[in-house]
Amino acid sequence: MREEEISRIWRAELRLPVGLTKKQILRFWAAEDKPYTVRVEAVKEYGKKFNTHCLIETGTYRGDMIRATVNDFDKIISIELDELLYEKAKSKFSQEPRITIVHGDSGKVLPKILQTITEPCLFWLDGHYIPLTTNTARGDRDTPIMQELEHILNHQVKNHVILIDDARCFIGPNPVLHDYPTIQKLQDFIIKRRPDLVFEVRDDIIRIHQKRFS
Question: Averaged over 49-78, what is the pLDDT?
Fold first, then answer.
């Protein structure tokens, strides 16, 4: 199947044909990727639109999102699994009292962080493992997204805003990633628990928020 046809199916139906090879999937990811500025603009836009003062990020990596949005939030909490990346980020932002870097698997440490949260937050969920692309760490699974969403949806604050990066990776098990859910499974998971929420995918970002703001 040609790359153009694979991308056409994805854009129309948010799914991929079965039986794709590793090479086809990697080419699809490259074709559907978006500039990092698109991600930064989305975080800033939704933070302003929903008047959220706290950003909680999973997947610190090199701290690019923190640097880009540090003046847009009163508080930023970022979780990084890789110990070396965590130490570098902690050192890099040590002079910023508004920034907290947490070491650990976001699927496991989020509950403790959420215990301290009493206001709506913007969640930027980017703590997934994507082999052969970037130097990212892997926990018990390729992505802790289901655990992350479970913790956020169960939190006492019900009007959090959730942005999930790398929507193109959520295609179900494949030759590259083994336990990513599909977009449809994510949507079903969200709507079953919170039918009051909007679920949409745009510019490689899954966007989840209350309907009254749509």
Answer: 97
